[in-house]
Hints:
The structure is a homodimer of 410-residue chains.
Chain A: H1 21-28, E1 32-36, E2 39-42, H2 44-63, E3 67-68, E4 74-76, H3 77-81, E5 95-98, E6 104-107, H4 112-119, E7 131-140, E8 155-165, H5 168-189, E9 195-201, E10 208-215, E11 221-226, E12 231-234, H6 238-245, E13 253-267, H7 269-274, E14 277-279, E15 285-287, E16 289-296, H8 297-308, E17 325-330, H9 334-346, E18 351-354, H10 360-370, E19 374-379, H11 380-383, E20 387-392, E21 399-402, H12 403-409
Parallel strand pairs in A: 3-7, 9-12, 17-18, 17-19
Antiparallel strand pairs in A: 1-2, 4-6, 5-6, 7-8, 8-16, 9-10, 10-13, 11-12, 11-13, 13-16, 14-15, 19-20, 20-21
Helix pairs in contact in A: 1-8, 2-5, 2-8
Amino acid sequence: MKMSQLFTKTLREAPADEVAKNAQLLIRAGFVYKEMAGVYAYLPLGIRVIDKIKQIVREEMNAIDSNELVMTSLQRRDVWEKTGRWDEKTVDVWFKSALQDGTEVGFGWSHEEPIVEMMQQYIKSYKDLPVSLYQFQTKMRNELRAKSGIMRGREFVMKDMYSFHATKEDLEAYYNRSIDAYMQVFKRLGIGEDTYVTFASGGAFTKFSHEFQTICDAGEDIIYLHRGKNIAVNEEVLDDAVKELGISREELEPVKTAESGNIFNFGTQKTDEMGLYYTDRDGKRQSIYLGSYGIGITRAMGVIVEKFADDRGLVWPEAVAPFRVHMVSIGDVASEAQALYDELHAKGIEVLWDDRDERAGAKFADADLIGIPHRVVVSEKHIKEQVYEYKKRTETDAQILTHDQLFAML
Amino acid sequence: MKMSQLFTKTLREAPADEVAKNAQLLIRAGFVYKEMAGVYAYLPLGIRVIDKIKQIVREEMNAIDSNELVMTSLQRRDVWEKTGRWDEKTVDVWFKSALQDGTEVGFGWSHEEPIVEMMQQYIKSYKDLPVSLYQFQTKMRNELRAKSGIMRGREFVMKDMYSFHATKEDLEAYYNRSIDAYMQVFKRLGIGEDTYVTFASGGAFTKFSHEFQTICDAGEDIIYLHRGKNIAVNEEVLDDAVKELGISREELEPVKTAESGNIFNFGTQKTDEMGLYYTDRDGKRQSIYLGSYGIGITRAMGVIVEKFADDRGLVWPEAVAPFRVHMVSIGDVASEAQALYDELHAKGIEVLWDDRDERAGAKFADADLIGIPHRVVVSEKHIKEQVYEYKKRTETDAQILTHDQLFAML
């Protein structure tokens, strides 16, 4: 895409009230716009990143036989009253409003209760199990404070998945498959090496749930890491976990992390509460086992920003970068730049061409701020010798490459 | 996709309180689930249709140089107060709530004001114009009644586009390009022949706005059609239009229609009200011309259902069908069915394979209800002779085709 046709604009400064590094950089680089604290619009560059993250998540959820749907944001009071979670003393992040006839409605901060309610229509017998469903949903959470940029918003995009099973064993097997799928997601997003499956507090049915915690200075959590055994434990269950897992407190190293995902085994608690059952082969009514699995999509984008950005701007891993190549043309090289642009396109390489009438320094500064992995300069100086200046975003020095060397590099 | 792996279930009956034909059929066929009146979840089959409609719209908006972004649902009071539209006496479809500190927020029923406000950050000089932006957004409208299924929801998906221009002429030229783009969208959706660019009431700057009205018995509008001159007029501006266009009232035929899209020339009214200006080449402050362009995505899906469905169920036009081929296997033909399924896949043809252990009659009834354009039956009876039973959804009688004839047909 030509930058002259892309709606984006780098800004010298982020809004004064924006304290999170991720949002400051994303606003300055033209990826997001701040509507209010914790509420961000996604501009064309931002959407490209979000769509890539979503697609990676989608492929991995499809690979474990989950089906994509989309639930509603508007939710019913009676559905949430079945588990006592309509009450604002229990759930303190509700946004609520009312229909014109006075009927109260809530805006979805989670979809566990609504999907269990919906399944009353689709799960009748053992033949309907197991089933796994996921969605990308804009969640609304009325957070008291919203100071973490897109890492914890009042409006944000989440992938939430729910699986329903006839037996405890079937749920546990699926739960373990989902752990592998999640780790595959984080690996593909470029944060796999720093993301740990972490023991966290469970519920009525299981001692532990699992979080996926990514080492990140901007994170809000502390986990305790046993690097040798690759075990990670959330602070909240430290005592229990140490006992259970046969590790000693002293071997554990505290690290600051951001929660990139979490999964939860509800057992039959929620389905029982809501009256969702199935009929087995013998015609007997049986409880249904429920698992719940979340990944914050916009949050993952924020974690990636926080982890990789440097003092010059954003640094995107290849898999989620808005474009693969940032081509900068300098001087009177329109036809040569067009030729390279066309050739990159023909090879299926996504390229952003800075064709603006700006000085080289400003273009380079913007390229660093935007953070696309590969920068290629087409300049009057070099084009006579049929060479290009090439620089990786993560490196400081550029190299001079011939046409063939350049394409070998990309 | 194999139906045994698809989350869907046809239902014998729609909920008793559902009065709209489109929602009744979509619920029975397993495309949508009703959360409450005017609020529907989209199941996997439904998402496939929505995504196809979106992709067609996306391609046509990109073709007129518009850029995709996504605004926020949570909106600020101060932004809407600038035009007086925060007031519920002016806008009667607001859902409102409040942050924990008491700050009122609204849920986006439209995004005109928020996008004009946002552009304060991005439009400074004549160099920043023209610019066109669009989004697919889940809109919230607190409709008093919601009896039209997905054709008029309280929560629905809309494509809304906004264009900003330095001059009246530039806006008018873009407005006309958008008319062509919209007609191209409706043509590709399969409703082009029955969709009319219709004169409707304008505003401070223009006598008329334009609606795209699709002939549809379930529609809520009446337009007056001059078939000879291909002119359509909304009832509300009939007298004005008759005068202006030099047609006589008697030549016009009243037809029931559904509004599939609308476009509006705001002139500089809204941008002036909100204080959005640009600086021209001479450094002078100038007003900005704004156009606004909407297509209801879920509404379009509803219109398509209403127009084409028959007494056996849904009938999807090729371009938006969830799958192209509905393959039904009957009896002990697993390997032959698998071979055909693989071959269709290899040719890039999307196929839904009803591999369920059900009797043929039930499978055929479901195929008709779901409405995929081409049905292919692999049965014990015919497979010995290496032929397939083929039926178009729109036809009643099946034909017997050889392998080559079948692929020639698809």
